[in-house]
Amino acid sequence: MPDIPPPENAPPETPRLPARFADWFAARGWQPRAHQLELLRLAGSGRSALLVAPTGAGKTLAGFLPSLVALAGAGRGTSTARGEARGLHTLYVSPLKALAVDIARNLETPIAEMGLDIRVETRTGDTPAHKRTRQIARPPDILLTTPEQLSLLIAHREAADLFADLRCVVLDELHALVTSKRGDLLSLALARLHRLSPALTAIGLSATVREPDELRKYLVPQARPAAAEDDPEPPAPLPAPSMAELVVVRGGAAADLRMLDTGLRLPLAGHTAWQSMPAIYALIRQHRTVLVFVNTRLQAEYTFQELWRLNDDVLPIALHHGSLDATQRRRVEAAMAAGQLRAIVCTATLDLGIDWGDVDLVINIGAPKGASRIMQRIGRANHRMDEPSKAYLVPGNRFEMLECQAALDAVEEAAQDTPDARLGAPDVLAQHVLGMACADAFDPLRLYEEIVSAAPYAGLPWEEFEQVVDYVATGGYALRAYERFAKILRGPDGLWRVRDARVAQQYRMNVGTIIEATKVKVRLARALRGRPGTVLPKTGRVLGEIEEDFAETLTVGDTFLFAGEVLRFEGLAEDEAMVTKAGPGTDPAIPSYAGAKFPLSTFLAARVRALIADPFAWDRLPRQVSDYLLQQRRRSILPGPRDLLVETFPRGGRFYLTAFPFEGRLAHQTLGMLLTRRLERARLRPLGFAANDYGIAIWTSRDVSERIGLSPGFLEDLFAQDMLGDDLEAWLDESAMMKRTFRQCAVIAGLIERRYPGQKKTGRQVTISTDLIYDVLRKHQPDHLLLRAARQDAATGLLDVKRLGMMLQRIQGRIIHKALDRVSPLSVSVMLEIGRERVYGEGADEILAEAEALLLEEALA
Amino acid sequence: MALGQRLEKTTKAPGLRLAGETLTLDRCGGLWLEAHRTLIVSDLHLEKGSAYAVRSGQFLPPYDTRETLACLHEAVARFDPACVVALGDSFHDARGPERLEPGDRAMVAALQDGRDWVWIAGNHDAAVHEGVGGRYAETLSLGGLTLRHEPRIGAPEGEIAGHLHPCGKVAMRGRTVRRRCFVGDGHRLIMPAFGAYTGGLNVRNAAFDPLFPNGFTAHLLGDGRVFTIGRTMLVRD
User: In this predicted structure, what is the pLDDT of residue B195?
Assistant: First the structure.
């Protein structure tokens, strides 16, 4: 296929739109924006670019403009040119399937109005098989898809042909993608695209981020790929740039953002913000359409329930979260798009996504947890850049007031807390390597060069790549038990090939990095009137799904909040949880089911610490918070911004130690586990601990204050960095969270197969539990690739070890101890968490002993 | 979490009477008959990992056999039995013995050295094992006890069997603990699976009903000891 030159070989200094486009803009009363023209110029001269812009800046159109202009020019504008097969010109990748579909619809308008002969199609998990086949044989000009579908495409046998003429790839919401394993997978796919089509231009679209350079590196190859022997073209004369160009659109109108202060006294703990519900309802009444964001599904259920209790005007208020039935969610989205709703209570499921023009207010209940997240959410209101977005932050307790104030300050300064760039995960790489073998025989050296051109894998040593290949081939075990069954084989020509079609099929079934918790459907059942406790299964509609883990803890008769109602659990039937509606006035008895809960971002945590340390800043805080801080200063001490405050005090016959690192719940839970181990060794007899986003409390049966007084350096040793050595190792080995992390790595890397929703469990478990596999592997090959992958995840994921390490370093020589005779105001906040939190997977014997004791009671009764 | 309730760790196992014999339920999942100096273990499923590689191309860590044998070695060292009975499904499939790694094969031989060793036939490994020592039997009688792999409905008192891989699950205070267990009713006892990769069938599954028409008691393998749990405290999966 002939190379199609870019439309403007010598771009003018001030880029101009082709007449057809200029007319179209004019007809709509629009001016092309500077960043749209800039992107056109850069792409026209073959340079990749990152566009950083706030919502409403016309980002998406800017991303597609170069492709539309190119496709309209070069003799492709008339419909008579159709007939001979054209290659795929532009690929668009979005984190959300729905977003891809929506963008496709939005592109149709300019294409139709300008009369362009450009074919746009989507390819998602819902695309029918015949259409998929046709898309390979006769690709559209522009294909919109998701990272997982892209991975499948590049693993296709026809991939080299399909992408040979690809000129442009547009990566939307790049900031949201790069911080996860999905981002790792996408980076590897992008590296492959750059190799298949060396003239490719990558355009990244992103909201405002702290480190745009990380995204700029992500877009372009990090080292020049080795020139292929069969490539007739000499490599480009310019050395490959290591960073894409940067185009930044500054601010738009400043957001009109406030903290909702009802004047009511807030509690010291708790996140429901029940005091503020009447005020929130009043705001909904005063606005056209309101998005009410909350942090967890439980909170969403609660807020929805409370708002409807107040809803005397019967305003259309809807609920949207990840556990609800998909058709239910689609209905809510459609009603929203049609302007039929006055408010939606929603979780992070609506953080990204489809543009709903009519939202005029965003309310965020609970702590913001991160400055970038809050800005993204605020941006969901008023999707026009020139008008200010209006938003309220609603704190649930006095600490959250501090956090809200810190977030307000951050937004004011447009400061960001996007996480650091990732180190590419080995399990993702293993999946990719198998995919590449499915596409074609590969030369290991050449594949290695390609992989290290992807920014997250740029530092990957050759030896580790070899280990990954070994893992893919035979499992990577020191005991060479599986040589005869190898999934990929090295031929006499030195190339690796996939063993057979079955292995390729396994790869296709396993692609992707999103591991969903196993869920069971929640179905309304009809209770039999004559026989209490008996239900007719399969009679009612499905309300949504809950995590299997949660369903397993329910016993018949338990009540819980779900889908906006109080439900009564009636039992499990096959893979469904049968429920009935609880009688009116019933309180939900079971407190929670799992749902997203974000830890406080490092960046916001530092701001909260600074706020506490600076009394001059307190006049910006609500009076009840500054009073509270004053009390703390009177009764104990307020730590400096880099200090760690440790308080010890007796209470109710026990001794307490509290500490306030402000590093988020996950890091604190890990810290709590490790400190408890150390206190036990110091014979202080720790009894338990509780943690929240701000601090931890540990209680012991021996006097900690006394020990600190008697042995100088005790506290410093307790919080010493070597905690992350042997103690961490010993705990990690047993930790249930580590096992969960391992399971995810094992699925991604293809060691065990995914369980699909709806797939029935057989009575006798045929799958081997990953916990058993973990235990055996840990004992016999502790340095195995998948254990390394799990450890790498633990550093940043559920255990947040990395953050803990940074904290321990920060506080060296900065521990301030205060021995008190009773609990301080600051400590009360974390003490209130006691009994509320549960730590998974520890102390199984205690649970068993309790059950055993009940049998004894029964026997003695 | 309440570390304060940490219990005294004890290896003292509950004793149980069955058909006039005294049985010791060990936390490793084995059954010790002091009077006969006999150790019984059930459902070792050796070479289960490699069976997956053969059948479905899944490369599970190939260390399950040595792990299972190491646990068995630990129990043998503790009890020093005159006889070891493997109560069926000792290998995951009939070709399992062929796939034994040389080191694991030597370990089996070392365990058998100086004692009687009986492989009871199972449904996974009905055929006689070649080259792994020991003797073979369909069933074995020991005092008033009958040892067989698969429990028989209507068997007379004193049956000890495996096959079902019983597991018990306890739900308390929002947490669940699921463990392998012995399950018995004073008439028969079903043993937990011993193998490193063997999963379990919940004792509340209907498969157990005809075997225990008058209810049962489960003995769950905890980390430190065996816990005796009443049927009413056990929940379904």
Answer: 95
Query: Tell me, what's the pLDDT at A225?
Result: 43
In a domain, B29, yes or no: yes
Residue of A nearest to B51 (CA): A482
In this prediction, the answer to ipTM > 0.85 reads: yes
Is position A619 within any domain? no
Q: A758 lies in a domain?
A: no
Residue A425 burial (CB < 10 Å; 0-12/13-18/19+)?
buried
Number of domains observed in the structure of chain B: 1
CB contact under 8 A, A852 and B175: no
CATH of residue B218's domain is 3.60.21
Q: Is A435 within the bounds of a domain?
A: no
Is residue A402 located within the same domain as residue A458?
no
Nearest to B3 among A676, A753, A773 (CB): A676
Q: What is the pLDDT of residues A711-733, one digit of tens each?
A: 989 999 999 988 888 777 777 77
Residue A854 to chain B, least CA–CA distance (Å): 8
Query: Hey, of A848, A856, A860, which one would you mutate to test binding to chain B, going by the most B CBs within 10 A of its CB?
Result: A848
Of B177, B60, B129, give the one whose Cα is nearest residue A476: B60
What is the pairing mode between strands B188-190 and B159-161? Answer: parallel
Cβ contacts of A420 within 8 Å, gap of 6 or more: A211, A214
Q: Quote the tokens at residue B223.
A: 């980390």
pLDDT of A230: 47
In a domain, B171, yes or no: yes
Mean predicted confidence (pLDDT) in B6-34: 78
Pairing between strand B217-221 and B175-184? antiparallel
CB contact, 8 Å: A771 with chain B? no
Flag whether A219 is in a domain. Answer: yes
Average confidence (pLDDT) over B202-209: 91
Residues in chain B: 237
Both A684 and A570 in one domain: the answer is no
**Surface of A (557-576) touching B: CB under 8 A:** 572
- Structural domain for B47, as ranges: 21-140+158-233
- Residue B150, domain member (yes or no): no
Domain CATH number, residue A651: 3.30.1360
The pTM assigned to this predicted structure is: 0.80
> What is the distance in angstroms between the Cα of A126 and the nearest Cα belonging to chain B?
28
> Which of A840, A849, A855 has its CB closest to that of B230?
A855
pLDDT tens digits along B62-89:
999 999 999 999 999 999 999 999 999 9
Q: Give chain A's residues under pLDDT 50.
A: 1-12, 76-83, 224-232, 234-241, 591-596, 757-766, 837-842
Of the candidates B41, B44, B60, the residue with the CA atom closest to the CA atom of residue B52: B60
Q: Count the domains in chain A.
A: 5
Q: What is the pLDDT of residue A548?
A: 67
Number of A/B CB contacts below 8 angstroms equals 164
A191 and A45 within one domain: yes
